Amino acid sequence: MNSPLTVIDMHTGGEPLRIVTSGYPDLPKGTILEKRAYVRDHLDHLRTILMFEPRGHADMYGALLVEPDLPGADLAVLFMHNEGYSTMCGHAIIALGRYAVDQGLVPAGMDVTHVNIECPCGMVRAEVTMRDGKAADVSFESVPSFLFARDKVLTLEPWGDISFDIAYGGAFYALADASQFGLEFSRDPVADFVEAADQLTRAAQAAIQLGHPDADDLAFLYGTILTDGKDVYSDEPTRNVCVFAERQVDRSPTGSGVTARLAAMHARGQILLGQLRGFESIVGSRLSGAVASKTTCGPHKAITARVSGRAFYSGKAEFIVEDDDPLARGFLVR
After folding, report:
1. Neighbour-count burial of 77, counting CB atoms closer than 10 A to its CB (0-12 exposed, 13-18 middle, 19+ buried)
2. Contact criterion met (CB below 8 Å) for 112 and 129
3. Model-wide pTM > 0.85
4. Packing angle between helix 44-51 and helix 32-42, nearest 10 degrees?
5. Whole-number Å distance between alpha carbons of 168 and 295
6. Among residues 239, 326, 330, which one has the least CA distance to residue 285?
């Protein structure tokens, strides 16, 4: 580190977002995926400084704003977490939509402000609702999302045969009914959901080869979403928990996870175009989502999803590293 790292912290539905405001060196020009690879290969010590203890924690999440490459992008972002760098993050898009308006990165509109955010998965278009001249609720329309694998079955000890889907919502997720693991929301501890989800993720990563029409860098299983099984549309919210990266638990319903669930639900005929559904997280926070359009992604029938929520500020900080600190690059304790 040649200079302090400064950040602004926000959260969406309880899920943190640490936005880097200064301290990173300039990145080489290139595509967003090339920038992601450069940061991963050359600057990963800055991620661990920001995400790990003593400055962060095992479930911290971050965003690094970089120079856009796509025409029409207002800003571009690299997402970071306890394992590395994601390709999409819906809760971060909601926070960054408000942040972009508040910081003057885009000029504020009267009723709605549009913010085009370039992500590693592609362009995501956010719509910021203005109230009394200030940014409030944020919605985004996802990249094309699709059901990749349906009704797959793996045997996991000690639970037996587990049925699941794999869907893409800017990142790939395994989707499974938590009741197959004997788990019930509001009854069982989060640790039990984490163990079940992590085992399914690792087994599915080993058993199923993923592919994405746009880029090989997108073809990895990011995590598992365990649901309450209430996939058929109703007015009642459906609850889920997302366990991603290195057993990281999303406090929000997970914006890209909601998108993946909507893609799977639509492919199964469980939700129609434009139908609004509520999605509730492990801590009770909510996002709303709907199928915005039908499209294709390579050989896949796909949708775009519209996901809405609200983000809040939680603080700002300046982080330093002393030269003789033996724990300078951070550590994690579970």
Report:
1. buried
2. yes
3. yes
4. 80
5. 14
6. 239
Question: Token pair for residue 119?
Answer: 């992500």
Cβ pair 152, 163 in contact under 8 A: yes
**Active-site choice (89, 121, 242, 297):** 89
Cα-flanking dihedrals φ and ψ of residue 140, to 5°? -140, 150
- Tens of pLDDT along 143-184? 999 999 999 999 999 999 999 999 999 999 999 999 999 999
* Helix (H), strand (E) counts: the chain: 5, 17
Q: Is 297 tagged catalytic? A: no
Contact assessment for residue 148 and residue 116, using Cβ atoms and an 8 Å cutoff = no
200 and 153 co-located in one domain: yes
- Look at residue 329 and tell me if it is in a domain: no
Q: Provide φ and ψ at 240, rounded to 5°.
A: -155, 165
Read off the pLDDT of residues 86-99 as tens digits, 9 standing for 90 and up.
Answer: 999 999 999 999 99
Helix axes 255-267, 90-102, angle to 10 degrees: 130
- Residue 328 lies inside a defined structural domain of this protein: no
Cβ–Cβ < 8 Å for 212, 170? no
Same domain, 300 and 193: yes
Residue 125: φ, ψ to 5°: -105, 115
Same domain, 181 and 52: no
Whether 4 contacts 24, CB under 8 Å? no
Q: How many CB atoms lie within 10 A of CB 151?
A: 8
Q: 83: closest CA among 239, 212, 196, 247?
A: 247
Same structural domain, 192 and 297: yes
